[in-house]
Amino acid sequence: MNSTKPDVPKWLILSGLVLLITGMLFGLVGSFQYIFPGLFKQYLSFEKIRPLHVSSVVFWILFAATGSVLAYLQEHTKRKLFAGKASSLQLKLFVLAVVLILSSYVLGKFGGREYWEFPPPLALILAAGWILFIIQVAGSVKTLKQQPVYIWMWLTGAFGFLFTFTESYLWVFSYFNKDIVRDMTVQWKSYGSIVGSWNMLVYGVGMFLMEKISQDKSYSRSSMAFALYFLGLFNLMFNWSHHIYTLPVNPAIRHVGYLVSMTELFILGRIIYKWKSSVTAAQKNIHNLSYRFLVIADVWIFINLFLAILISIPAINVYTHGTHITVAHVMGTTIGINTMLLLAVAIDLLSDTCRSLKPYYPQIIRASWLANISLFVFLASLFVAGVERSRWQMSAQAEPFSQMMKGLAPYFIVFAIAGLMLFVSFSFIVFPLLKNTLSCFIQPRQRSIVEFKTAFDRVK
Amino acid sequence: MKQKIFVSLILLFFAYSMFIYTQSESKSNHATSDVEAGKSIWQQNNCVACHQIYGLGGFLGPDLTNVHSAKLKGPEYIKAFVRNGTGVMPAFDLSETELNQLVSFFEHIDASGKSDPKNFRRNLDGTIELN
Fold it and tell me: B110 vs A159, B47, B52, B65, CA distance in Å?
């Protein structure tokens, strides 16, 4: 068991876990504001709660993804990081950025755009931290020769994020800001690719973990792995225009997006083709808690990819755009895929920090079941609400907006209850990870209730 | 081989990005300083948390792309909502000048196109065309 205190990569993951719980709490408040209009309007109205929720969850992904990459880089190279102090400074800059950004939201100080609503100068702190991350990754990798695919993915994600994050701020220049259609097109081009960039980091650590568990190093160096990587990169670069199909843009932009998105059918087909062998592998490794979360993420990848391909077809997108079906897709990918993969990694890396996580395994397994059932109900309620909203949007004589929203109330109630269950279940998963780390600083060894019970049963 | 594919994709990406950056909407719809000021007010109050433009944004309030020209809506309607709020939306303490700038912003968006999805013809091959 590792009795040393967490290093910087683990601190990044731990900070991310705190942000995950914080973000879900804000999300919960937001969902209740749908049911009780005007709830906390004086102090934390929806225009504050939404960015608090979204930014916290985005930062969970960024913190945990960068921390996981840095931790696994050391395992891969069997060396310490290229510049240890750079990561420490990255962590400090990230924490400073988060504190300032969340505070600015609480105080009602905005000025940015959807997803990056904070005052633009704060983006510089985040970018500075990210540049340090790039230096660390590139410096530690040294060469691309004979490297497995996840190294390519991490480098792509690291550089890709910085480029697309910078691109999302082109609006500060008058050339972009003055032209509303160009501005929105560039904004959503960058957002599409930003998500693709952090997905490269997250899927890369997921692949590394799979290799670590299976002890099979052949896949990450295979031609198929690289073919899928290049397909992913192709989609990262060109598959974003489904966000802006309804904007008055050059039709060529729509056609490119539509054609590129259809290449994802290959990935979907491969998942179906490999289904049987995936199930066999899952049965073999299911005793491994991290593997369990990887399998869960696989199932959500299949569901979300299917939905993503459907809503990338312009004739279907016209119906789903601007409805809660889009929200279901976003929530499905961030919770079902990104969060499950990052939790798999967090369990792997934090399972032996000062205390063993094993006594908590039954609790975490039960919580993961609850999380997945809740997530299914959560997404289903959003999907049905989206269908209803779509019917309203396409209706020739639509009722007023407020009337339509009142009609959606039952779905929002289900959505909020499922959100509450999600929050509870994720808390049961995250709490042991945080508690075990905290024990490094408070008490060297403290028995858990489960351990006490086991000891008691033995005596009995 | 891998490096060649990678470099080719990067070059293609930059070329496509340049194409996107140089796309422009109708030349007649220029943003004035009032429009830019209105856009800044829109951002500083994070209106996008609840409202959409071209279906992009929040879901708590209605899409505002064509609120400026919509039947029974328009400049005074926009000002009244911003000044007084609703049961859900807070009231915003904006000066008359700021309200006019916000209205200019909505007028500018309105002139750029229509956001109603019913305006699109859906083809059997999955493509769409603006009617």
Answer: 37, 17, 13, 6
- Please, how many CA atoms are within 13 Å of residue A383, restricted to the half-sphere of its CB? 12
**Residue A15 has which token pair?**
């900070």
Question: How many other CB atoms are found less than 10 A from the CB of residue B1?
Answer: 7
Report the interhelical angle of A251-262 vs A264-273 (nearest 10°): 20
Task: Find out if CATH 1.20.210.10 is the number for domain A274-393+400-451.
Answer: yes
**Dihedral angle computed from the Cα positions of residues A130, A136, A138 and A139, in that order, rounded to the nearest 10 degrees:** 150
- DSSP bridge pairs for B122: B128
Instruction: Give start and end residues of each alpha helix (H) in A274-323.
Output: 275-285, 289-311, 314-320
A323: its two tokens: 């409805």
What are the sequence ranges of the domains in chain B? Answer: 32-130
Mutate to test the interface with B, among A36, A41, A42, A47 (most CBs of B within 10 A): A47
| Long-range CB contacts (within 8 A, 24+) of A33-40 | A33/B60, A33/B88, A34/A412, A34/A415, A34/A416, A34/B60, A35/A409, A35/A412, A35/A413, A35/A416, A37/B87, A37/B88, A38/B87, A38/B88
Nearest CA in chain B to A397: B118
Do B37 and B102 touch, CB atoms closer than 8 A?
no
Nearest chain A residue to B117 by CA distance is A318
CA A359/CA B106 separation, integer angstroms:
58
Residue A4 pLDDT: 61
Residue of A180, A255, A325 to mutate for B, most B C-beta atoms under 10 A: A180
Model pLDDT, residue A183: 93
In this predicted model, what pLDDT tens digit does every residue of A118-173 receive, in sequence order?
Answer: 999 999 999 999 999 999 999 999 888 889 999 999 999 999 999 999 999 999 99
Tokens of A301: 């990848």
Kindly state which CATH superfamily the domain B32-130 is placed in.
Answer: Cytochrome c-like domain (1.10.760.10)
> Which ranges of A107-148 does DSSP label H, i.e. alpha helix?
122-141
Query: Which residues of chain B does A111 touch, with a Cβ-Cβ cutoff of 8 Å?
Result: 40, 43-44
State pTM to two decimals.
0.91
ipTM score here? 0.93
Are residues B127 and A112, on separate chains, in Cβ contact within 8 Å? no
